[in-house]
Design a protein that fits this description.
- The longest helix has 15 residues, at about 15-30.
- The chain is globular and about 45 Å long.
- It has one domain (about 10-225): Mannose-Binding Protein A, Chain A (Roll).
- Strand 6 (about 135-140) and strand 7 (about 145) form a beta hairpin.
- The relative contact order is 0.20.
- It has about 230 residues and is α+β, with helices and mostly antiparallel strands.
- The protein has helices at about 15-30, 70-80, 85-100, 105-115, 160-165; strands spanning about 10, 15, 50, 55-60, 120-130, 135-140, 145, 155-160, 185, 195-200, 205-210, 220, 225.
- Strands 5, 6, 7, 8, 9, 10, 11 and 12 form an eight-stranded mixed sheet that branches.
- The protein has five helices and 13 strands.
């Protein structure tokens, strides 16, 4: 059986106790699942979260901590036993919502990736830093650093095709250089900037040019936590 690592609390309330019975039942059934199917099974449901099998992560259904900057959002999530999703993890989350269109999934997808009267955006775990002539991406709240892979490195507005991005991106979750034209705005990576996903009455976009100390009443963050053996990028 795959053991599941969950935070002790969420918003000040215990989580593990609510899952004990589900996990016991999963233990009874685990031996009946062929080994080759282990990575395909659904994790137990958890109120307030959606499980995305492709990355073995639970995502909060609603963003929180509006009006905090990127650094503060990381700190707030850590106190809950959660963390900020990377661009690739967030892309996988959007893809799951769109291509598994239950009423709830579709509603969450529309709230994130559709034009809306009131702006809404959320922080993503990506900090960009130039070293020499190369641009690097820092994730895990700047604890992990790697060279930015070959990807789209210029602004595109109106933009790129969101379906192509959701179906085919770089290892780090970025649009590929030759991606088709579409409606998703893309603002390119800048030195000492961070990423967010944004939607308002004019556009929807992946913005990789934000200052890390910027904050707004409509800018929040969606926490995630992982299942053991997570296949995060």
């Amino acid at each position: 059986m795959k053991n599941i690592n969950i935070p002790d609390t969420f918003m000040g309330k215990p989580i593990k106790g609510a899952m004990d019975e589900i996990l016991k039942e999963q233990e009874k059934k685990a031996g009946q699942i062929p080994q080759k199917s282990q990575t395909q099974i659904n994790a137990p449901s958890l109120d307030g979260f959606i499980y995305v099998p492709s990355v073995d992560l639970y995502f909060q259904k609603e963003k929180q901590f509006n009006n905090y900057d990127w650094h503060q959002a990381h700190e707030k999530l850590q106190k809950q036993g959660l963390r900020m999703p990377t661009i690739e993890e967030f892309r996988q989350f959007l893809s799951y919502l769109k291509y598994n269109p239950s009423a709830e999934n579709s509603a969450i997808y529309r709230s994130i990736a559709k034009i809306r009267s009131l702006s809404s955006s959320e922080w993503l775990d990506a900090y960009f830093e130039k070293q020499g002539n190369e641009l690097y991406i820092l994730t895990q709240n700047k604890r992990k650093i790697e060279k930015l892979d070959d990807c789209l490195m210029k602004n595109k507005a109106p933009g790129i095709d969101i379906d192509e991005w959701l179906m085919d991106a770089t290892r780090q979750g970025f649009p590929k250089p030759d991606i088709k034209i579409g409606d998703l705005h893309h603002l390119s990576q800048l030195n000492n900037s961070v990423a967010r996903f944004y939607a308002d009455s004019d556009c929807v976009g992946l913005y990789c040019n934000m200052g890390s100390v910027y904050f707004s009443p409509n800018l929040g963050v969606r926490g995630v936590f992982g299942v053991q053996g997570a296949k995060t990028k």
